[in-house]
Amino acid sequence: MSQAEVDLRARILARFEGTTPRHEPTDWRLLGVDAERGRRLQSHFPADPVPAAVLVPLVDRPDGLTVLLTQRASQLAQHAAQVAFPGGRLEESDPDVAHAALREAQEEIGLDPSRVRVFGYLPDHLVISGFRVTPVLALVTPPFSLAINPAEVAEAFEVPVSHIFDTRNHKARLRRVGDEDMLLFDLPWGGHNIWGATAGMLMTLVRMVEAAP
Known about the structure:
- The chain has 5 helices and 12 strands.
- The protein is α+β, with helices and mostly antiparallel strands.
- It has a single domain (3-165, 197-206), classed as Nucleoside Triphosphate Pyrophosphohydrolase (Alpha-Beta Complex).
- The longest helix has 16 residues, at 196-211.
């Protein structure tokens, strides 16, 4: 692992290790924009969003961290064929958001929770489909195997975290949200285009790490 990869891993852990879920409406995020702009845009999103959680699995590879992502199945009613983190709505049986994220990851891609260590959380993100999503940050220790559920997931793939942190890979596009034109970012990788809520969560990760002292 290069020194740059070692340093990036250390910065991510230093910023988020031991953080707790942040559910306060004043801290909700949208599409990866800053908290202040996000508060202005909340009126264009559902007022009573459904609690959900996603796992942000950072795979601890010898040559650097990668993030494990899925491409959703094309037949799904919501977010079909989009790149996403494994996750879904909270169920009554879930004691907390971490349990929900781990459960969904096991159901969708067969990720064994014993290979996963939750270490922190991003602020909740609102998505236009009506969910308030808590991104659960976790380190995944190789080796591990996956068993993809084809009813929900078309494929799983990994993206180097260093690729996500490199601003040269952030492809800007203008999008109208409510009454504002916003500059949002896509993250292309290997024939996939990471955009929307998933790109927003990754951009929040980047910005929070880069802003840390």
